[in-house]
Write a structure and sequence with these properties.
The protein has 155 residues and is an alpha/beta fold. It has helices at 9-19, 39-49, 85-90; strands at 2-6, 28-32, 64-68, 73-78, 101-105, 118-125, 133-140. The chain has a single domain (2-152), classed as P-loop containing nucleotide triphosphate hydrolases (Rossmann fold). Bound molecules: adenosine-5'-diphosphate (ADP) and magnesium ion.
């Protein structure tokens, strides 16, 4: 388990942008944490690396938004309003896993059907400073096991 401290929105996005350098088609990332914890800002940082959107909003009315260029497709899911795992299966959710990079806000809702390998990032706020977020990073399976997640931090 890695504990990453991001002292501003900019730092969270910078961290995500650096981490995005290792991502490839088929990778899955699950983001959890309360509303306003920084999950969507993190996704913006990831997209920055690929030269995609600078500003996005969570896909409120659709469950998934796709961002793509010639090199990669990124599927950004927000499962906050998902009623249950069956709803995800009914929209063919599992078919997205190997089509590009899949990022799930509130992905813990579909934990039972996630692939064997994924990255789990939990965001928490600090009581004493509203600009600080703690990212707890956990790897599931072998795919991300050898990666040093502290290496994406900048001074
Ligand atoms: N260190 C930080 N990292 C990310 N966001 C931060 C940070 N500090 C303050 N914020 C603010 O918190 C909010 C996070 O919003 P958002 O990313 O949409 O959260 P979520 O998707 O988890 O609901 C933004 O308004 C952002 O400016
Ligand atoms: Mg969000």
């Amino acid at each position: 388990m890695y504990e990453i401290i991001c002292k501003s929105e900019y730092k969270t996005k910078e961290y995500a942008r650096n981490l995005a350098g290792i991502l490839k088609k088929g990778d899955v990332i699950v983001l959890s944490g309360e509303l306003g914890a920084g999950k969507t800002k993190f996704v913006e940082g990831l997209l920055n690396h690929f030269g995609l959107q600078d500003e996005i909003s969570s896909p409120t009315f659709t469950i998934v938004n796709e961002y793509k260029n010639e090199k990669i497709s990124i599927f950004h899911f927000d499962l906050y309003r998902l009623s249950d795992i069956y709803e995800f299966e009914n929209i063919g959710g599992e078919e997205y896993f190997n089509k590009g990079i899949c990022i799930f806000e509130w992905g813990e809702l579909i934990e039972d059907i996630l692939p064997n390998d994924y990255l789990k990032i939990s965001f928490s706020k600090q009581n004493d400073d509203e600009n600080i977020r703690i990212l707890n990073i956990e790897t599931v399976g072998d795919r991300f096991k050898e990666i040093d997640f502290y290496s994406f931090l900048e001074e």
